[in-house]
Amino acid sequence: MHPTRIGLLVNAVLLSATGCLAPRLPEVNLSDKVRIPDKSAVIFFVDGMDRRRMQELLEAGELPNIKKHFVDGGVGVKYAVTSMPAITYPNSVSLLTGCLPGHHDIMGNLWFDRRTLEIPDYIHAGSYRSVNEHFDRKTIYEILHDHFTVNVQFHTRRGVTHTFDHVVPTGIDWYTHNFSGVDRRVGYTFSNVIRLANRARRWPTVIMFYFPGVDETGHRYGSDSARYAEALKVVDHSIGLVCEAIKASELVDRTYFVLTTDHGHVPTPPDRHFDLAGWFERERDLKVRTECLKSKSYDQRQRQLNQNDVILFTDGGRRAVIHLRGRGGWYSQPDQAEVDELIDQLVQIPAVELVVCRGQPHQVRMRTRDLSAAAERKVEGSTAFYRLRLFEGNWLGYLEKPIPESGLVSPWHDSRDWLRISARGYCPDFVVQIVEMFDSPRAGDIVLFAAEDWAFDGWSSGHGSCLAADMHVPMYFAGPELQAGGQIDYARNVDIMPTVLDLLGQAHRLNDIEPIDGRSVAGELRHARKQGEQTTAATADPGSVLSDPAAQPPDVRPRGVEPLGLGG
Questions:
Q1: Does the pTM of the predicted model rise above 0.85?
Q2: How many other C-beta atoms are found inside a 10 Å radius of the C-beta of residue 372?
Q3: C-alpha span between 104 and 324 (Å, rounded)
């Protein structure tokens, strides 16, 4: 028998035995003794839900629950941008903390810290939850420490009151490649949440539902595959179970819903996979490490790493992080001349769209075959401002015409202005996020972003580049006082946490923690226009369900980016 069928049979037995599979649709029957908060939030986090593929299925009528409860029944964000890098664990932590990865220090599914020589790895069963030990910013659960909160399946959960993992059936599903079996169980686990609430005599203020199966399906079979479409349909069904149950209950007028993801999923043709580790060994005669370090002793880690010249991570497939051993060993930084000489070679690789590295303080340098530029930051009071400095070439369409001389710069803009200026572009929100990303010492010495349909691994589709296909994500909010079928223009994934707190009437709690990067868009959501009330320019951008960022209004430059004015 096929292993997937074996898994389905074993899974059904285990689920029936453990009570994880509800015999009927969930029903919110709460005891009179259950305390219900004034407002609550349900967050659906669908790992790897590609925006364009989702739109295709919505337009084909194959995601009826998402369309009913979010597209037609909620407020969509026309240009929602995830955090850089567009990889799962950095964005999982950003979702819960409201901080960009450069400020919470989770820089990938693997990362290297030159100070401690640690290389943790979150993509294996024994270590995937260790992420909760490696950042120190407050999660939404910790901020709501006196509230009852519930997590279903999400690996990032520090501070949550109760978690449902279903370790054994989930492990069997993953081993047998029945990834949608996990996502199906996530929906039916809502029955367990209801039973838990009756036992605890409290309804959760926040419930997080995490769906990991779509992302894994995309990597293995491609986001353009029939299997990926089926995986999204399973998630749609699970979302429908929860939404219908809540909307049929007394909770309907006090529950907000959020639907989001962590990154896009870009299909990679068979001839567009580049072996970067092999390139280093073949072209540079360098010994490369691509795996985690399990040694607990610093001295043991040092001895192991001294056998390598380069540490390379390509998690997600479309971003590569390069750490170089310095002359004094791994604790020391590489020489700038060595970095520059390597970059001169890396920009010639067809798979590479863009190469970035640290420059002067508050500056990140970037290179392509035809471009030399820098993103820069200055801080005035409590506000950061950013600009783009061009040394050679034209920065990916941001500027209206090629630069006539070196040293040309854009005006300074604050973070939200840059989001507005660039959200529809080829590299959305790049200038701000690339500077903030390199605030982390774990960001790497050199970072490569893959070109449009290239990858640095062998999977069928991937993510992690700075391009719009990786960075644009679906983001929806629904609930009391929110305009059904409404739309706002811009938001980042770091805005979700403060927005949820604001909707819950708990925004004041942000005053008691370290400042975050996200900001609440609750006011914009409450005053959202209907999608039919767009401006002329927006209407020219097709797609009433989800606008396609690649579609260009007439006044937009060839790569779909609004031009910046030039100035001092």
A1: yes
A2: 16
A3: 23
